[in-house]
Amino acid sequence: MSGKKINRRAMRRLDRNAMRIVAKLSVALKRPGKAVDDGAEKP
Q1: Of all helices (H) and strands (E), which one includes residue 41?
Q2: How many domains does the chain have?
Q3: Which pLDDT value is given to residue 24?
């Protein structure tokens, strides 16, 4: 029973992370140089 709740929470977290990744990728497409620098600074 509790497994479903945990899975839902995990999916929400994955969705949030996915949104962040998509946003970063969109910014990277607009400014590739800066995105690479940010990635090197914060692994």
Answers
A1: helix 32-41
A2: 1
A3: 86
Domain limits for position 17:
2-41
- DSSP annotation of 43 reads -
Rounded Cα distance, 27 and 34, in Å = 9
Calculated CA dihedral for residues 42, 23, 18, 35, nearest 10 degrees: -30
Element housing 26 (H / E): helix 2-30
Distance (Å, rounded) from C-alpha 24 to C-alpha 26? Answer: 5
- Summarised one tens digit per residue, pLDDT across range 1-43 is 566 787 888 889 989 999 999 888 888 777 766 655 655 555 4
Biggest CA–CA distance in the chain, Å, is 48
